[in-house]
Write a structure and sequence with these properties.
Helix content is 52%, strand content 13%. The chain contains 10 helices and 6 strands; from the N terminus they run αβαβαβαβααβαααβα. A 4-stranded parallel β-sheet has the order 3-4-5-6, sandwiched between helices. Helix 7 (180-188) crosses helix 8 (190-199). This is SDR family oxidoreductase. Belongs to the short-chain dehydrogenases/reductases (SDR) family. It holds the Pfam family adh_short_C2. Residues 2-177 form the Ketoreductase domain.
Length: 254
């Protein structure tokens, strides 16, 4: 579980632990990873906390090796690590653009690349990538939306490649969710949450546990016939986008 130290990653990790799975919590913040590992261990799961920089291939390779040594196999990969960047197109420094792409896209790619080797040993695996409704309809900031759209393309291509190898690849695309990052943003802009909730048909944002439950389903044996799918969980927000029609073109000048 990359990004397993908080938010959706933490919620999904604890759901896995309650179901009897052993868990590896990989996070750039080792303190948070250790905290979630302790929670999982208290539930009764085998738990390993690792400091991992998903944008660094050697860090990812080492995490996979440590997972294999500790547990002997890898059945499920959840790519939950990610960052956002709140700038409009013309205001994005290229180094920040690269950081968003390195963590969100390259990090997802590297984890999938090295997880594939372990999963092929048993001809079984579940890869779940955290996308976003922003990656489908471009409702977020440009760098974030572009990164999440790239994750969709990567996952769908990988799903085709791995379909006959017993490995499924899917995307969970949440809408507005009550994660620590979101709570920090809303604290600095109190009206933003209210505007978001008023725009969502169900009238609220998601709880991390609701997204985690969807991840848990896709990670299960029962989801063996589900691959190459993007599961949008946004309280109906994207249904409004589909219903919107373009404004009529202005009449030609006479």
């Amino acid at each position: 579980m990359t990004g397993g130290g908080s938010g959706i990653g933490r919620a999904a990790t604890l759901i896995f632990a309650r179901s009897g799975m052993d868990v590896v919590i990989a996070d750039i913040d080792e303190v948070k990873a250790r905290g979630v590992a302790e929670e999982a261990a208290q539930i009764g799961a085998g738990a390993l906390a690792l400091r991992v920089d998903v944008s660094d291939e050697e860090s990812v390779r080492s995490a996979m090796q440590q997972t294999e040594v500790r547990f002997g196999r890898l059945d499920v990969l959840v790519n939950s690590a990610g960052v956002d960047f709140h700038k409009e197109l013309a205001d994005i420094p290229v180094e920040d653009w690269r950081r968003v792409m390195d963590i969100n896209v390259t990090g997802t790619f590297l984890c999938m690349k090295h997880a594939k080797r372990l999963m092929l040993l048993n001809k079984y695996g579940r890869m779940i990538c955290l996308g976003s409704s922003s990656g489908i309809y471009g409702m977020g900031w440009p760098a974030y939306s572009a990164a999440k759209a790239a994750i969709n393309g990567l996952a769908l291509s990988a799903a085709r490649e791995l379909a006959l190898q017993g490995i499924t690849v899917n995307v969970v695309a949440p809408g507005p969710t009550e994660t620590p990052l979101s709570l920090d943003l809303w604290a600095n802009n109190p009206g933003r949450r209210q505007r978001l909730e008023s725009s969502v048909p169900v009238g609220r944002v998601a709880k991390p546990e609701e997204i985690g439950a969807a991840i848990a389903y896709l990670a299960s044996e029962e989801a063996g016939f589900v691959t190459g799918s993007i599961l949008v969980i946004d309280g109906g927000l994207t249904s409004l986008m589909r219903q919107q029609t373009p404004a009529p073109a202005p009449a030609p000048a006479s």
